[in-house]
Design a protein that fits this description.
Layout (H helix, E strand, L loop, with lengths): L2 E6 L9 H14 L4 E4 L5 H5 L1 H7 L2 E3 L7 H11 L3 H4 L4 H13 L2 E7 L14 E7 L2 H10 L4 H21 L2 E4 L2 H10 L8 E3 L27 E5 L5 H21 L4 E5 L5 H4 L7 E5 L5 H5 L3 E4 L9 H8 L4 E3 L16 E2 L4 H13 L1 H18 L2 H4 L3 H5 L1 H13 L1
Parallel strand pairs: 1-2, 1-4, 2-3, 4-5, 5-6, 6-7, 8-9, 8-11, 9-10, 11-12, 12-13
Helix pairs in contact: 7-8, 10-14, 14-15
Length: 412
């Protein structure tokens, strides 16, 4: 039986952040196609504890701790003329394990999750290679440089990552992006896009897990003390930090002018020092990591996603919609989800006055919140179920098996 090698920059478990949610569902789908060997990194004690789950499902795995300081990775990147994104995720033990696994096991396909891991594909590997870039990271770093953030470093990272992304596209039998918008951006950056197979596999949502019927609102989000606005995410991720700071500094004062009791809840692990400094601001609660985000979503009058920089599909938005909450978001945060403004969510540029005008009818009317929330949940259940999103994976990994699977489905 042919086997699969799955390479990810983080251990997929627990699936408690955007990249790990996607990698965990990809791994689950791959396990349905044959034995899977997993190479990945651990970063936290929670990651290490999750290795028991990986041990239970993988044919074998190698999961070294990623402890390389960013400064060392930066020096290595300068010396080797490589992106920091690659040197930060290079590990000799993992590289040796990949070569050994390919030599000793009947690996027919290497699935690379995230561009940092493409460096581990052996040059002499003759099987299929599928690369899931998710987003066009080179464009993200170029965007940071254009915004004036660490211009030289980000411009360098963008340039070198663009070269690596093109190398991977040429090496791969298929390259995956998370949305049509990302795929379009990627094709425009390739020298010969017609010679590469570019596919889109969007993010899904487990609507049985994010089910409002199973969750009670958190007691600190009492309706009488609101309205409550909730923003979730990994808070040391620069776009999330930037959006949270904008919401606190720019949006919340206008919200509290309109509703004196308005509360803004910033929820997510690893809040930065700048966010923690805002904890004394009237109406702001920076929760940090919580055991379960769903009670906070359930108690929100509105979930916000005022992202100024965004790539791909936002899991935070899908989760809020699955929880039947109205979502107010910027156009950048709406990328990759074809919901309708005014029916499934509220889309508005990052302008406080415009946002308040947009959200006021929803905040003022529980009936309108319920109607939009139901429409939002119905939409993601129909269009963003993981099984549907990953349906083409079998054909990409094993074309003959994927074709047989599709034929069996049609026959049924």
């Amino acid at each position: 039986m042919s086997e699969i090698l799955f390479l990810a920059h983080r251990v997929p478990f627990p699936p408690n952040r955007g990249d790990k949610i996607r990698s965990a569902h990809l791994l689950k789908a791959l396990l349905g196609l044959g034995p899977v060997h997993v190479g990945c990194f651990t970063e936290t004690a929670q990651d290490v504890a999750a290795l028991d789950e990986l041990r239970a499902c993988a044919a074998s795995f190698c999961a070294p701790a990623r402890r390389k300081p960013l400064a060392i990775a930066g020096l290595e990147a300068l010396a080797l003329d490589k992106p920091v994104s690659l040197t930060a995720f290079y590990n000799r033990k993992l590289a040796a394990w990949v070569h050994q696994t390919c030599a000793q096991r009947p690996i027919s396909t290497i699935f690379v999750f995230s561009g940092q891991m493409g460096q581990y594909v052996p040059e002499d590997f003759s099987g299929r290679v599928v690369v899931d870039l998710c987003d066009v990271d080179s464009a993200k770093f170029e965007g940071y440089a254009q915004a004036g953030e660490r211009v030289w470093l980000n411009r360098r990272e963008g340039r070198l990552l663009a070269a690596e992304e093109e190398r991977l596209a040429k090496r791969a039998d298929a390259t995956l992006l998370i949305s049509e918008a990302e795929a379009s951006i990627f094709k425009q950056r390739l020298s010969n896009p017609s010679q590469q197979r570019i596919e889109v596999i969007g993010n899904g949502i487990d609507a049985s897990l994010f089910d409002p019927a199973k969750v009670s609102p958190h007691p600190d989000l009492e309706p009488s003390e609101g309205p409550h606005f909730v923003f979730t995410g990994q808070m040391d991720y620069r776009p999330n930090e930037q959006a949270a700071l904008w919401a606190i500094d720019e949006l919340l004062p206008h919200l509290r002018q309109r509703w004196c009791g308005a509360q803004l809840h910033i929820i997510g692990r690893s809040p930065t020092a700048k966010l923690l400094d805002r904890r004394g601001t009237d109406g702001v609660t920076v929760w940090g990591e919580v055991p379960d985000v769903k009670p906070y979503l359930a108690g929100a009058h509105c979930v916000i996603a005022p992202l100024l920089i965004a790539r791909g599909v936002q899991n935070k938005v899908l989760e809020a919609m699955a929880m039947a909450r109205p979502v107010l978001l910027t156009p950048k945060a709406a990328t990759g989800i074809d919901a309708r403004d005014g029916e499934h969510w509220l889309v508005c540029e990052a302008d406080p006055a415009a946002m308040i005008a947009k959200v006021e009818p929803i905040v003022q009317s529980s009936a309108k919140r319920e109607t939009m929330g139901k429409a939002a949940r119905d939409y993601v259940m129909t269009h963003h179920a993981w099984d549907a999103k990953l349906a083409k994976l079998a054909e990409l990994i094993a074309p003959d098996k994927g074709k047989a699977t599709l034929e069996a489905r049609h026959a049924a």
